[in-house]
Design a protein that fits this description.
12 strands, 13 helices, globular
Length: about 400
Amino acid sequence: MIYLDNAATTKTAPEVVEAMLPYFTEYYGNASSIYKLGSESKKATIEAREILAETLGAEPNEIYFTAGGSESDNWALKAVYEAYRNKGNHIITSKIEHHAVLHTCEYLEKQGAEITYLDVDENGVVDLEQLERAIRPDTILISVMYANNEIGTIQPMQEIGKIAAKHGILFHTDAVQAYGQLPIDVKELHIDLLSASGHKLNGPKGIGFLYIDKKVRIRSFIHGGQQERGRRAGTENVPGIVGMAAAAQRAFRIMEEKTRKEIKLRDYLISRIQKEIPYAKLNGHPVKRLPNNINFSFEYIEGESLLIMLDMKGICASSGSACTSGTLDPSHVLLAIGLPHEKAHGSLRLTLSEENTREEMDTVVEELKVIVDRLRSMSPLWEDKLKNL
C-alpha cells in the first residue's frame, strides 16, 4: 500500500502510542479526582498543556482541549459571536474555509450574524485589499485558515493578523493542516484563537485544542463540570491529551528534516506529472503551499473513478477534504479559485508523509498515466478533443 492521504489523517506514531498506553491501564484515574490515581492524570494534562503552549509561543492557561478541529472551529466562532454580539454581528471569513467554519457561519447567519466571504485568487490566496474594505464598525471576528486542506495554499498570516490588530478585531485561524507542519508564533502573528487537531500530526483521533488569547472574552461551549477552567465541561480525555502533546513534541522536533524531505518528494512528483500527463493542472500556490500537498485537476476524467482505480492499485488518495467524501458536488475550494465544474470534478489530492519514498512517487506516476489514459479513452469529450487537435 502507498498511503498518500495524510491531510485526511495520519498514522499514529509508535512513540505517541507508547506515551498514551499507561493512561489507559495504569494511570486511569479521573483527572478531576483528588486521590493520587486521579492526580497522576491531572499532572499529565498540566504537562501536556505546557508542551502545547510552548509550541505556539502561548501560555498554558490559553490552551483548551477539545475533541478535534471541527469542535475547536465551532467553539471559536459561536462563542465569539455570543460574547461580542453587543459590539457587532459581522464576521469575515474566506470562501475556501473548511466546512467546520463555513457551516458554522451558515448557522450563525440564521442567528442574526452577517458574514462576508472573501474571494481568493487563482492560487487560493485571500485578497488583502478586499479584507480591508470588508471591515465595518460592527466587525467582531476575522476567521481565515492558516493553510488550505485541499490545495495546500498558505495564507499571508502576518498581514491578516496586522490588519485585524490595527482595527481591534479578533483573529481566528483554523490551523488544523498547518500545526505541526509549520512553525507558528501566535503572539507574533496577532492570532487570538487557533484550532488544531491531533490526528493530523501523527497523534490520536478525537483530540484537539483551541488556543484562546487570555484577553479574549469568551463563554463556555459545553456546560457541566469545571473542566478546562469551566469553559468546556466533560471528563478529560487524558490518553488523547498525552498523545497530542507527544505528537506535537515529535512534530516540532523533526519538522525541519521532515519539511525538507517532503518538499523534495512533492516537487519531484509535481514535476513528473506536469511533464508526463497532458492537461493536468496544479492547483494551489506553486511555492507558498504545505510541504506535503499536491493537488491536480485532470481534464476529461472524473475524480471518483480515478480514486477507485488508484485504490485497486493499492494507492490511497483523495479528491479533497475527507469531510466531504461521498458527495457528488465539486470542491468549493476549486470552484473558488476559478476552475469550471468539469475540471473541478477531475481533481486528485496527494498528501505525503516523511515515510514516503521516491520509488513510491515513481510508482504513482506510472499508475496515474495508465489510469488517466484509460479513463480518457472512455470519454466522448476526450475523443472530440483528439479530433480537433
